[in-house]
Structures are given as C-alpha cells and as structure tokens.
Specification:
alpha+beta; six-stranded mixed β-sheet; five-stranded mixed β-sheet; 8 helices
C-alpha cells in the first residue's frame, strides 16, 4: 500500500513540475539603449540668429493708415520655447525605462546559490520542504475559531500567546484535485508552521526532519510566469516539493488558491 502511495505522490510531483509554463518573449534591449543614449546626450545650445534687417518705409503713414504688422518667419523663429518641460518629460521617460529594465531579484535566488537548511513535513502523504529562514514558529494545533465567508482551505483562526494565526488546510490548498473524501477523513493535523513574519500558518501532520540542502539537489522552476508560483522546485531524491514562502504569502493574502492564471 505504501508503495502505491509513494508512486502516486511521485507522479503528482512530476505533474506539478512538468506543467506547461508560459514562455516569455526575449526582450530587445537595443531600442532602449538607443533611447537612453539619446536622452543622456548633452544638450547643445545654439546662439540665436540675428534678426534680418527690415527696410525703412518709403513714406511715413499716419496711425490711422498703418496696417497691422504680421509676424515674420524670423519673429516666429525667435519665439521663446519651453525647454524646461521637455527636459522634465525626458528625464521621466529615462527613469521609467531604467525601472523597467531592472526587475527585482527572485527571493529564492539566494537558495539557488548557497546551501541552506530546510524543514521537511508531511501533509496527506505529500512531503513538503520550506527554508528555515522563511519560517516563523512551530506550534501545536490548538482550538480554531471558524470564520464565515472564507475559502474552503481556510481552517480558522488560532490564538497563540496573544497573536492570531490564520491556519491553512495545507492539503486542501496544495492539492485539492487529489484530496478525496476518504483521504481527507484520514488527515490528522498536529502542528501549525507560521510563515515568516506573516499571520499565516500551515497545518501539517508530522515534522519529518531538518536537514541542509544543496542547490544542485533541487530541480528549480524555470524563470518566468507559471501557474504555481508557490512551487520553488522539487527535491527528487527526497520526493518532496520546496515552497516559495514569499509567493505563498502573497497568494494567501489575496485569497487565492494553489493555481493562478498567467498571461
């Protein structure tokens, strides 16, 4: 029976990680670089041209006979411009381009470079891992106050040392499509693992171990948008999923489930 369960979990992890991911188009930096070079070029001030000589009138006219003087091309050329506003708009465009060209670093990037400690725990037969640096506290599961109008994966609020922890039904959140009525009835949550400094906590059945992981032991997700941003990667030799805690917290704060639509 255990062999069948292990096989099912391995197939589930493979399905999670081999999902089609959205390919992002390569960004062409040449037009942006050209704009930046143009924007950063020094502005050369050209001296105003001398006004053309205006011939003297042949005969003086009385004020009543004087016709209205129309502006000449020279006068229009000498009209004041608005270089200040153009400079401000240009600087703003440069700032926007620079901001767009420097995306924030992936919070999981440090774990892809160096060894890190991870906590392993189980939920409905599935082993999950989370970096210790991303953990808050571990508590025994206590009394829960249920709230109406919350998603099915929201178990309730647990008060611990004056703090309120929003407890997540981890099995229902991570793999709702695999959670049959029989399997759900067999789940016995014992602990709550809080995430970083947030108010969220994951309910789990057993705390397996805490052990160091090397980056090469993890099959990391591909960069770019994907339907399961909470899945940082898979540790195949331990047959477990590694959680991306910052992404997980973002999804929970937005009341979202384990998958999201990507453009």
């Amino acid at each position: 029976m255990a062999g069948n369960t292990d096989k099912a979990m391995r197939e589930y992890l493979d399905a999670l990680f081999e999902e089609q991911q959205v390919d992002t188009a390569e960004f062409d930096h040449e037009p942006v670089a050209k704009l930046l070079s143009q924007a950063s070029a020094p502005v050369v001030e050209t001296p105003p041209s001398e006004p053309a000589a205006i011939p003297e009138p042949l005969a003086a006219k009385t004020p009543a006979e004087e016709a209205p003087v129309e502006p000449t091309e020279t006068d229009e050329a000498l009209a004041p411009t608005e270089p200040v506003e153009q400079t401000i708009e240009q600087d703003s465009a440069v700032d926007d381009i620079e901001a767009a060209g420097t995306p924030p670093e992936d919070p999981m990037a440090e774990y892809q470079r160096d060894d890190f400690q991870a906590l392993f725990f189980t939920v409905a037969g599935l082993t999950l891992a989370v970096p210790l640096k991303s953990l808050g506290q571990i508590h025994n599961l206590g009394k829960l106050n249920t709230l109406f109008g919350r998603p099915k994966w929201f178990k309730g609020v647990m008060t611990e040392r004056g703090e309120q922890i929003q407890v997540v039904d981890t099995a229902r959140w991570v793999m709702p499509e695999k959670l049959t009525e029989q399997r759900e009835s067999e789940i016995e949550y014992q602990y709550v693992i809080t995430l970083n400094d947030s108010s969220w906590g994951l309910a789990c059945e057993d705390l397996v171990t805490s052990t160091p992981l090397q980056p090469q032991q993890v099959q990391w997700r591909k960069p770019g948008p994907n339907r399961r941003p909470w899945l940082a990667g898979v540790v195949r030799e331990k047959m477990c999923a590694l959680l991306d805690v910052p992404e997980l917290i973002t999804l929970l704060n937005n009341g979202l489930g384990h998958t999201k639509d990507v453009e």
